[in-house]
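Question (not urgent): is this output format expected?
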Amino acid sequence: MTPFLLLGKENWIALLVAVCGTGTLCQDGRAVEIAEALQVLGRMDVGPDSQLVAQRSWQTVAAQGTAERIPEILAAMNGAGPLADNWLRAAVDAIAERELREKGSLPSQLFESFTLDKKQSPRARRIAYEWLKRVDPTAPNRLLPQMLDDPSLELRYEAISQLINEANASDDEQVKLEKFQRALRSARDLPQLQKCAEALQALGQTLDMARQLGFLVDWKVIGAFDNTERAGFDKVFLPEQEIDFAAEYAGKSGPVKWRDVVSEREDLKLLGKVDLNAALAEEKSVIAYATATFEAVEETPAECRFETIEATKLWVNGKEIATKNVYHSGGGFDQYIVPCQLKQGTNRILIKVCQNEQTQPWTQPWEFRLRITDKLGGAIPQAK
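Got this back:
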């Protein structure tokens, strides 16, 4: 650790104020080096002193940085938070604009190398790519074909957009088919996936988009249990303690049993939806449970991505991984994203979906949908 970083907070704020007021390095060598200022920006967080510290550190980097040092500045985004990213992005833009204005060019090879370095932050790589396009108009056609499976979702999105445009522009039906199929395999953005699916269906292809997106489609549901005055959210009903499909339990209005439900598979906008009103009964102040299995080829980290407007709890293999005690919050594709660990073989997913007492029309839906993906939102293939 440098001597600068060993200073207490009050001292290094004072030092920044003293030496960086003009944004230039002091001749006597007491100024903060760019590398040290980058460390300050890289760990920047919200707090009473953050704005002042960030401004002074940004001045140091922006004033003394050169285009050749932009990769170093972008690399500081690795592991940084959104606030730090914004300050670092502002420094890069200031340096690049100044150098482009004064010199008429930027070192495009440095920007291209950084863009292709998948070990760097996805947002930093996207910034490098945007500046590369400004000085090298040939970059998109050269680089985007390499980015169809890129870990940066922004770069992947642009690569797939280009591939979709190529497919639409082709008069060769086989070329169209191949390009849309390739785009569908790589896309992670829902509107792009829908475009590809609709185009492939128009070309006569039969698709299972629910499974393509990783939605669990074969469920067993049980309910309704009592949620009067919303007391059921934290109450442990028997399905939380055991999964016995032959069992019969006491429900709110009488005995309840598990029943089979297949989630929505036809409507592209509703893929994976389980409608509990239709599967059970349209009631208020109630709770339902739904369970499904996922057959993993191997032990692997994964994400449960689910959507519901209701209060919800979620378990994977008996471990509670999410609790959302919010009613009628509004939904949306991948509304909640929760990391989990899948074991090799059968994994048991259990979700508790609560309905409250409100009777307004917008409170009537009692539904959810859930998919299992990798960290980029791609479906994890099941063993069977």
